[in-house]
Amino acid sequence: MEFAKTVQHWTDDSWLPSASRSFLLELNPSSRQESRDEMRILLLITFGSAGTLARYALQGLVQEWTSPTFPYGTIVVNLAGCFLLGGIGQYALNHISFPAEWRIAVTVGFFGAFTTFSTFGWETIHMLEEGEWMRATLYVALSLVGGLALLRWGMYLGDHV
After folding, report:
1. Which of 6, 56, 120, 156 is most buried (CB neighbours < 10 A)?
2. Given a cut of 80, is residue 7 above it in pLDDT?
């Protein structure tokens, strides 16, 4: 399955492994499809592990270089993740025949493990609970506006490289 030919919009309908579809809809799944499902899971594990380690390293490095009073590491990881996903995703969409298994490995596996939106929410709530409204507002604004801007910039570069 080629990415540029199969995806006409931004959603990904390949999330449900065919083994689950087979369980729900078919009685005899093909061994070739089972092999593709196994490859997809292996790629998710591999890329998810790499994304987790990359997040841990970058977030820790940035936080060590900066003040521990603001979650700089989290914001750098989230903004970098938005930029890279925008650039890589758009480039692959326009220039590469990208098999579904690899697309899922990169987007869901690596970037799903790399970005830290749940950590962002946790840190924001704690700032609000501590009465740090200005810091929380700055954090939310930078994450949202910066993330969208960098995602768009990455998409632009993906189109023009």
Report:
1. 120
2. no
* Pick from 43, 36, 45: nearest CA to 17: 36
User: How far is Cα 19 from Cα 46, in angstroms, rounded to an integer?
Assistant: 20
Q: What angle do CA 100, 105, 107 make, to 5 degrees?
A: 90
d(Cα 74, Cα 63) in Å, to the nearest integer? 8
pTM > 0.85: yes or no: no
pLDDT tens digits, 27-67: 555 677 788 889 999 999 999 999 999 999 999 999 999 98
Sorted by sequence, the CB contacts under 8 Å of residue 146 that are 6+ apart come out as 75, 79, 82
pLDDT tens-place string over residues 63-84: 999 988 899 999 999 999 999 9
Cβ-in-10-Å burial (0-12, 13-18, 19+) of 11 comes to: exposed
Q: Which residues contact 65 (CB under 8 A, 6 or more apart)?
A: none
Q: Hey, which residues does 99 pair with through a beta bridge?
A: 2
What is d(CA 122, CA 102) in angstroms, rounded to the nearest whole number? Answer: 31
